[in-house]
Amino acid sequence: MANFDQLSQADKSRIIEMAWEDRTPFGAIEYQFGLSEDETIELMRSEMKRSSFKMWRKRVTGRDTKHRKKRREDVSRFVSPNQR
Q1: Do 43 and 20 meet the contact criterion of CB atoms below 8 Å apart?
Q2: Which residue in 19, 23, 62 sits closest to 42, CA to CA?
């Protein structure tokens, strides 16, 4: 089990936001915050209501865009160019 006490509430909120975004791969979360995919899932489970977590897991399971290795090779960015 990872120790999430080191993360600020703002960091936790940003990680959750990134995890909900369709086009943000887990690799981007790992790059920016040092959390693996499994640790991100663990954080989501601990910070969200059970029903919200289950809905999120159903949504991201198998989603190609959440896994950098499954993304098209021409997509090299972490976020949409429309985001700041």
Answers
A1: no
A2: 19
**CA nearest to 14, candidates 52, 49, 40, 39:** 40
**CA-based nearest residue to 13, from 56, 50, 47, 37:** 47
pTM of the prediction?
A: 0.74
Instruction: Tell which residue, 9, 7, 30, has the closest CA to residue 78.
Output: 30
Query: What gap in Å lies between CA 31 and CA 49, rounded to an integer?
Result: 26
Let me know: does 49 contact 41? Beta carbons within 8 Å: no
Domain ranges of the chain: 10-68
What is the spatial distance between Cα 11 and Cα 29, in angstroms, rounded to a whole number? 11
Residues in the chain: 84
pLDDT digits (tens, 9 = 90+) for 27-55: 889 999 999 999 999 999 999 999 999 99
